[in-house]
Amino acid sequence: MAPFLSSAALRRAVRAIARTLLVLPLALLVCFAGPVAAAQWDADTLTVAVNPEGSAVTFSEKEIKTGRKLFNDSCGTCHAGGITKTNQNVGLDPETLELATPPRNSVDSLVDFMKDPTSYDGEYSIADVHPSLRSSDVFVKMRDLNEDDLRLIAGYILVAPKVQGQQWGGGKIYF
Ligand code: HEC
Question: Does the pTM exceed 0.70?
């Protein structure tokens, strides 16, 4: 009578179990190491410019996480990961924001943009085509955002590249 499991099959089964036991701790590490690392943003990372005059503000991690959620909800369809889907030359990376007219690389100037967005050269309002408080009749998601929400979204836009590096805004080379 043939044995229930041939010795080759038995060896294969043992190897499969051993592999699982090896991979499991690794998988757990990957799952939990991410959030742990994210909880280590230092004050420097959380500090960004408030205005072009050079004042700074230090957000709490909780504020940035709220900002991320608001951003993903209200802006993510077009700006996920800091890019601009329909105009990749005008992304949300620090360099592009800095070179806008007026520069948009501070909390106040981003909040201002969300109230009354302008073309990249600052020449004309784009409130008709870009979500803003002025166009909340068309872009209904903007109705739920108050001044403090706008501040947190701006904070997230400015902190994200400090955490994600070139990945935020795509670093252009990805296109
Ligand atoms: C329907 C798509 C869409 C949504 C939603 C959207 N944007 Fe934009 N955004 C754009 C486009 C397109 C541009 C480029 C405009 C231009 O041509 O100057 C842009 C430009 C910008 C800029 C200027 C970037 C720079 O480098 O000067 C900022 C800041 C910005 N968006 C912030 C936001 C924020 C914050 C939200 C959410 C409240 C948001 N956007 C939602 C499409 C969108």
Answer: yes
